[in-house]
User: What shape does this take?
Amino acid sequence: MTKRVLLYLTLAAGAFVSVFPYLLVVLTAVKTQAQLSSTAPWLPPLPPTAANLTEMLAGDFPRYVLNTALMTLALTAGQLVFTTFAAYAFARLRFRGRDVLFWLYVATMMVPSAVTMIPLFLIMRELGLVNTWYGLLAPYVLGTPYGIFLMRQFFKGLPAGLEEAARIDGAGPLAILVRIMLPLCRPALGTLAIITVISSWNSFLWPLIITSGDETKVITVAIATLKSGIGVDYNLMMAGSLIALAPMVAVFIFFQKHIVRSVALTGLK
Assistant: This one.
């Protein structure tokens, strides 16, 4: 009983530490400037106000949410399509230099993304893609080393006999991938989709560098611009953060079973 009590106390403490920042976001978003300066951050306001949320939704912030949603949708679709093709080629097709090329590509994961931002920006500038949707999406829509590595390892775990039987029946590589492999890879595809959605929705550094207009501005950049030269409006920043956080919470609520299942990817049942 003592061990069980200690276990639950530890879990409760960990849960509180994890949830507390989100609680502060909610409480600050429904406070006025006077309430924020006169009460402790963790105390609820009396009465709460929706003025901050209304002000954010009445301006251009909904456009930035839509821009972020479109960017996330495009990046997720591109990742799933191009990553799957590349991973299948590295896992199943035989060509000269396959393994060397794959491990060289995976080795780029050791390079911090901040190091490549300036070269990427210079490339986009020479191509005339600064402050455009093409420049925003191009570096990541065709796949990432982590996504290709994840899908390749899953493909390699599938029985080779399935492909051999399909080849005997006259199926080509594309038919094998689409009709046999992809239905078996739904757990891995779900994992890749969830990771891509979260990383794309929270992306900040690259959108900050490559975009400058409202047509392509995303919510992370929009929230950062609420900081003025004379101070920070924490109420509006937290209201914007609460709006930005809501879709991710919805994703977790609706797909939590798949998220938990995808943590430990398994092969065929």
